[in-house]
From TrEMBL:
This is Glycosyl transferase family 28 C-terminal domain-containing protein. It comes from Corallococcus coralloides (strain ATCC 25202 / DSM 2259 / NBRC 100086 / M2).
Length: 332
């Protein structure tokens, strides 16, 4: 346990699930160490996730409607920051705020400020003078990947962050049962992750269909989604069942890639275009695919690799613990 209970506020605005996932990983460990955590998110997936029960007592989740316009979102952030003075404010990825609102709001926060500093598109960094915004923070935590200001004098590097430690994952047998396979079913599992933009959801659906056709009888092809979806299997966190997955198909987002690498799960992934995140840089040549035919070929090849599961690591270093300790030191 930490020496003193602290009140943390976590700003995790941003589309998709990535910002929320990173913040949830941080919040879960902070709550387990006795801190009170308020988490702000506008992820469209947040309303469908059991975040409060998963994070534990001491966590409060403020869900901002993802459909709000810029002015309404900025107003919601201002109201949230004005509610109380925390011991520390943690901001994920965007030092200026998602809409630039933190430039004006941060000076009103009478608490130490921590930036979760990740790679950002250099065009954005230069255009909006992100270097100046970064200097408003007392600590930069760099979670396992290089970033523009990773050598800042107030920067601390950690291993990549994951939602769960190794001992919290289901065993291979339990994970396969959770994924709907009978104990007598020896087929390998191909899990397709696809829950982003509408066109990406459609592509995931098509990918599942093609793989089920090409791998008919040779593998169980499942479409995993974080919240209820008509055609997918709802599993969150997906990391829970990763030991039951033989090949993971998805995109090059931070959490998918880091979870695959930590668990040693073979990954086949698209480099999705994003405004700030550069997925192509995160993926290796062996992981990245450019079209459907290449994807099918790589999946089939990985399934033919003998003894793949036996070589996977039983544990990993979860950098979120070191991050929590670093934030505790800077908090009042």
């Amino acid at each position: 346990m930490a020496a003193r209970r602290q009140h943390w506020r976590l700003y995790a605005l941003g589309g998709g699930l990535g910002h929320l996932t990173r913040a949830a990983a941080l919040a879960r460990v902070a709550v387990a160490r006795g801190h009170a955590v308020d988490l702000l998110t506008n992820s469209p997936f947040a309303p469908g996730l059991p975040l409060e029960s998963w994070l534990g007592p001491g966590a409060t989740v403020h869900r901002v409607d993802a459909r709000l316009d810029k002015a309404a979102t900025v107003a919601a952030v201002g109201a949230w920051l004005a509610e109380s003075t925390p011991d520390v404010l943690v901001v994920d990825t965007f030092p200026r705020g998602l809409a630039g609102e933190l430039v004006a709001l941060l000076p009103t926060v009478r608490a130490p400020r921590v930036l979760v500093h990740r790679d950002l598109n250099p065009v954005y960094v230069e255009r909006f003078d992100v270097a100046l915004a970064v200097d408003a923070f007392d600590l930069l935590v760099v979670p396992g990947e290089d970033a523009p200001f990773a050598h800042h004098p107030r920067a601390v590097r950690t291993a990549p962050w994951l939602l769960l430690d190794a001992d919290a994952l289901l065993s291979r047998e339990e994970a396969r049962r959770r994924l709907g396979l009978d104990d007598g079913d020896s087929r390998p599992v191909v899990a397709v992750m696809g829950c982003g933009r509408p066109e990406e959801v459609a592509e995931a659906r098509e990918t599942v269909g093609r793989l089920r056709t090409s791998l008919a009888g040779h593998a169980a092809v499942l479409w995993l989604v974080p919240t209820a979806h008509a055609a997918g299997m709802t599993v969150w966190p997906a990391l829970t069942v990763m030991r039951g997955v033989d090949v993971l198909v998805g995109a090059g987002g931070y959490n998918t890639v880091q979870e695959a690498r930590a668990t040693g799960t073979p990954l086949v992934a698209w480099a999705r275009p994003r405004l700030y995140d550069r997925q192509a840089l995160r993926l290796t040549e062996a992981e990245r695919v450019g079209d459907a035919a290449e994807l099918e070929a790589k999946v089939a090849s990985l399934l033919l690799t003998p003894g793949g599961y036996d070589a996977r690591p039983p544990a990993w270093l979860n950098g979120v613990h070191a991050a929590v300790e670093a934030i505790e030191r800077v908090a009042r």
